[in-house]
Structures are given as C-alpha cells and as structure tokens.
Write a structure and sequence with these properties.
CATH topology of the largest domain: C8orf32 fold
Strand content: 15-25%
Number of domains: 2
Strand order of the largest sheet: 1-2-3-4-5-6-7
Radius of gyration: 23 Å
Number of strands: 16
Order of helices and strands: HEHEHEHEEEEHHEEEHEHEEEHHEE
Helix content: 25-40%
Distance between the termini: 73 Å
CATH architecture of the largest domain: Roll
Structural class: alpha/beta
C-alpha cells in the first residue's frame, strides 16, 4: 500500500522542498519520491528493495545520485535496464589507498564522476574519466570555473610519469617532499588567466596568448603547457604529493575566489599556496607573473596567517580529518635548497599594465 501511495505522489505537480536522503530513509520514513533531489546510496542499502530506486531514477526532474562506495555503484549499474542520463558521483571517502578496484570501464548504465585525487591511486577507465575537485555540505560537487571536469588517460599517464621522475629525488619527510614539488611547480609555471592576468597587485597583459588555449584551470595545462591559474596549480600540487610514491596527505581547498592546499605535517594541518609563491614572490619578473627563484613565503602557514592575508577563507569541506588545523605557522625552519632551474623569461610575453 505504501509503495502505491508513493508512486501516486511522484506524478504530483505540487512543488515540494528538495531533500537530500539516504536510500534507506526513503524506504523507512516513507519519504515521497518527488521530494528527493539528491539520494545517497551505500553498500548497506544493497539488501533493500530497489524498485523505488529504479522509479526514482526515472522521474522528472532527475535526482542527483551519490554513491558512498564503488560497490554500490557497480550493483546499481547491474540492476538497471536503461542508461541513466544524468552524471552520478562517487563520494570521496578520505582514504589514501589503492583504487585499482574501481574499474569504470565495466559500468554500462551509469556515468560516474570520481574525485580527481583518486586517479593517481590506480582507477581504471577507458580513454577519459569524469572527475570533480571539491565537496560541499550539500554535495554540490563542481569544478569552479575552468577546473577539471574530466581527464584523459594520456594526460593522467603524463602526471604519473612526472610523479615517478620526481620520486627519484632523495626526500626525507613531508616537508621535504612539499618543498620539492613546490620548487618544481614554481620553476616552470607562469600565472596566466587570459590576455589580462592579475596577481599580487600587478596586472599583466599577454597580447599573444592564444584565444583558444587549453583551460588555465586544468592540471594538464599546468603540467604540459606550463601556465595556468590557482585551480590547476593547487590540484596538480595535490596529485604530485597525494599518491603512492610520495604518500603525503594533501588536499585542495577552495574559496569563492581562490584555490590553495592543506597538508598534514607532524600531526597538524598547515596551508601552502604555490600560486601565491609564484605571483607574490620576493624575486618577481618584470615580464610576466613568474618567479625567478624558489619562494618559501607561502609554505606551511597556519590559520592566523590565512586570515591576515585574505582570500584564504575556505568554503569547500575538508576531506581529511586526521589532525587539527594549526593556528600558528609551522614552527621549524624550512631547510631546503632549490634544485630546479628557473625560467628567466615567461613562456608568453607579457607587459605590466599601467
């Protein structure tokens, strides 16, 4: 009787408040299906009656489906007869473990978007994979402006090659690894948003910047083309550190206007910002937003500094919770000497806007 009642409500034209619900709650609390805008599904739901889920995935407007584990995504994919036309999401579980068990090439009925940082832990897929970069309280996972909504297998392979090459340097601990990756990114990256780019209070015009250049917020643009903005710089920093070779707990953090990183060091979390090390360097170039030498200025700062400098009030959720965010900056001296050659001129000619 209850199932009949709910099926009747599905066709109602009355407007209702949108709800985020776990699938079991829909069953156990008799929540009308047309109230549901987002539904969370986990392995704990797989012994439930899935007929209402099928109905839910056929109603208009279509709900957002979030899987809390890959096993539940694989199960739902098997029981569907038709392709679900909307993108589904795999929630980031906050573990730094092998993801070789995730084989997206075997899914036939759902298109699954996965956390970007899962990719360097062994996810299997065909030529391209859908990704998202951040998580919000209402799971409005999205790729702010021009960030990675996808990544090709070819570009992922280049990222893995860079990780492999960088892992040959003799790094001792998380701080040493952070400095190495920051040094690498700073030495080869020009900050460019478009033909007009602002950083550190300076505005540069890049007249020859290609109109149809690859997106400046993509990790592959930073790696392959050596230019871009904070989104790509921060996400590439995450991928180059949070992987099986370096094994450092790092994540990207987003506000409405900026993206930077959080790292676990000695049981506490600190921020670092490779974008600001480039655009607010003590050795800036007069020909573009590059740094002429390695900058430690925005490495391992605490929440007090983040509040003082501005643009570092996070809006995305933290993925990891294995320590407290330090209020003070990292107390020890950062003992690191740069090992990479820095560009003397930017990749694209720029001039300072008067």
């Amino acid at each position: 009787m209850e199932n009949t009642r709910r099926r009747t409500v599905v066709n109602s034209s009355v407007s209702h408040p949108a709800l985020q619900c776990h699938y079991k709650d829909i069953l156990e609390k008799n929540i009308p299906l047309d109230y549901v805008s987002k539904v969370f599904i986990s392995v704990a739901d797989l012994d439930c009656d899935m007929s209402l889920l099928k109905q839910l995935m056929n109603q208009k407007p279509l709900p957002c489906i979030i899987f809390l584990d890959f096993e539940s995504a694989r199960y739902v994919d098997r029981i569907l007869e038709d392709v679900f036309p909307e993108k589904c999401f795999l929630e980031n579980d906050g573990q730094r473990i092998s993801r070789e068990y995730i084989d997206l090439s075997k899914l036939k009925h759902i298109q699954l978007s996965i956390p970007l940082d899962y990719l360097v832990w062994g996810v299997q897929f065909h030529d391209k994979v859908d990704t998202y970069c951040f998580k919000y309280n209402d799971f409005s996972s999205y790729v702010f402006r021009n960030g990675n909504g996808s990544l090709s297998k070819e570009d992922l392979q280049k990222i893995r090659q860079a990780i492999h090459q960088l892992s040959h340097y003799h790094t001792k601990d998380a701080v040493d690894k952070l400095c190495l990756i920051s040094d690498y990114i700073q030495s080869r990256t020009q900050f460019i948003h478009g033909r007009e780019s602002i950083g550190g209070g300076r505005c540069f015009i890049t007249p020859d910047f290609p109109e149809h250049a690859p997106g400046s917020g993509l990790v592959e643009t930073i790696l392959n083309h050596q230019y871009g903005v904070c989104m790509g710089i921060a996400n590439l920093s995450t991928l180059l550190l949070n992987n099986p070779d370096f094994d450092v707990e790092v994540e990207s953090v987003e506000s409405s206007h900026h993206v930077w990183n959080k790292i676990l060091v000695d049981g506490k979390y600190y921020y670092f910002d490779n974008t600001w090390n480039i655009t607010r360097s003590d050795t800036p170039s007069e020909d573009g937003l590059i740094t002429l030498s390695f900058s430690k200025k925005f490495l391992l700062f605490g929440d007090e500094t983040a509040q003082k400098i501005g643009d570092h009030v996070r809006e995305s959720e933290f993925i990891y919770h294995n320590g407290d965010l330090s209020f003070k900056d990292y107390p020890k001296k950062i003992d690191y000497d740069s090992i990479f050659s820095y560009q003397e001129k930017p990749k694209y000619y720029s001039y300072l806007k008067k």
